[in-house]
Amino acid sequence: MERKPLKGLHHVSAITANAKKNYHFYTKILGLRLVKKSVNQDDTSVYHLFYADERGNPGTDLTFFEIPYAGRTSYGTNSISTTSLRVSNDEALQYWKNRLKEFDIDHDEINGDSGRKTLAFRDFEGQRLMLVSDENNVGVAGGKPWSKSPVPQKYGIIGLGPILLTVMNAENTIKILTAVMNFRNKDSYTTTINGRECDVYVLETGEGGSGAEVHVIEDAEKPRERPGRGSVHHVAFRVENREELEKWIEHLSELKIPNSGFVERYYFRSLYFREPNGILYELATDDPGFETDEDFEHLGENLALPPYFEDQREEIEAKLEPLDTRR
């Protein structure tokens, strides 16, 4: 059964131990919009927060599961080691360098190793993030920053950029991306990590560009990462709709790749599986989107629950620490 190529990055889901501080950082400092305040559908006692462009367009979502007692991450290999966030141009990076300095956010210098200018930084829990300039980028279009953001729209974050994977065996990861997921080998570059040079392999899907890239580094010297607060749980890639998702489920099953099968997430439909180095991938549909149960003007202001959890609302709300996201 013929499948359409994956369209690019859909979302990245990470772990925080403090929803209130997380909300403040990603909305008040990074200027993203909270487009959905919900719960982890696999553990409804904790929040699942979705930050994105003005309406949560696919490819713009950075989400967080709150795990209040999550320990510190022991960084290492076989991990999603950096999440990139796109900005419109090189000028925006200079704005962000000044803004990060103003808020005393740990950050590096502007770098150009990948062929695009980038600015790496860390959030209050050590989450590894990188701003990437779209100055010369072509391919998957970015989103539109929210007009009510504290960051001027011309400098605002417009979506997810390349996702960096650090793995023990790059060949195995690249084989899954190309032979199974139909990514294309694009190019490679060299960067310096902890004082030594590393090769980075660039793969792309769909229309290509920074919104559709995975960058892979091989590092067999580090121990395996032990995740905690400040780590990434999984990365999701875009499929158009449920029909296409069903084709991918059939494809993985034919290849005898263990997978979750169809999973209903209400705001999108999903499929999960792990690649050979243990990194969790999700395929997620572009539809229905975040305006299914809230109107555009009030996205993220109240606790949103999919219909199949609505009869548990009182019990769920009783377990959650109050989080005021009204604007």
Give the termini separation. 47 Å
How many domain units? 1
CATH fold annotation: 2,3-Dihydroxybiphenyl 1,2-Dioxygenase, domain 1
SSE series: EHEEEEHEEEEHEEEEHEEEH
Silhouette: globular
List the total number of helices: 5
Short description:
This protein has 327 residues and is an alpha+beta fold.
Task: Identify the notable features of this structure and list them briefly.
single chain, 327 residues, alpha+beta, 2,3-Dihydroxybiphenyl 1,2-Dioxygenase, domain 1, 8-stranded mixed sheet, 36% strand, Glyas_Bleomycin-R_OHBP_Dase
Describe this protein's structure:
It holds the Pfam family Glyoxalase. This is Glyoxalase family protein. This protein has helices spanning 19-29, 90-102, 170-180, 242-254, 313-319; strands spanning 9-16, 33-40, 43-52, 61-66, 79-87, 107-111, 118-122, 128-133, 159-167, 184-193, 196-204, 213-218, 232-239, 263-264, 268-274, 280-288. The chain has 327 residues and is an alpha+beta fold. It has a single domain, classed as 2,3-Dihydroxybiphenyl 1,2-Dioxygenase, domain 1, CATH 3.10.180.10. It has an eight-stranded mixed β-sheet with strand order 2-3-4-1-13-16-15-14. Strands 6-7-8-5-9-12-11-10 form an eight-stranded mixed β-sheet, with helices on one face. The longest helix has 13 residues, at 90-102. The radius of gyration is 19 Å and the shape is globular. The model has no long low-confidence stretch (mean pLDDT 96).
Layout of secondary structure:
Layout: E1 9-16, H1 19-29, E2 33-40, E3 43-52, E4 61-66, E5 79-87, H2 90-102, E6 107-111, E7 118-122, E8 128-133, E9 159-167, H3 170-180, E10 184-193, E11 196-204, E12 213-218, E13 232-239, H4 242-254, E14 263-264, E15 268-274, E16 280-288, H5 313-319
Parallel strand pairs: 1-4, 5-8, 9-12, 13-16
Antiparallel strand pairs: 1-13, 2-3, 3-4, 5-9, 6-7, 7-8, 10-11, 11-12, 14-15, 15-16
Pfam family, one: Glyoxalase
Domain VOC: 8-134, 159-286
Organism: Evansella caseinilytica
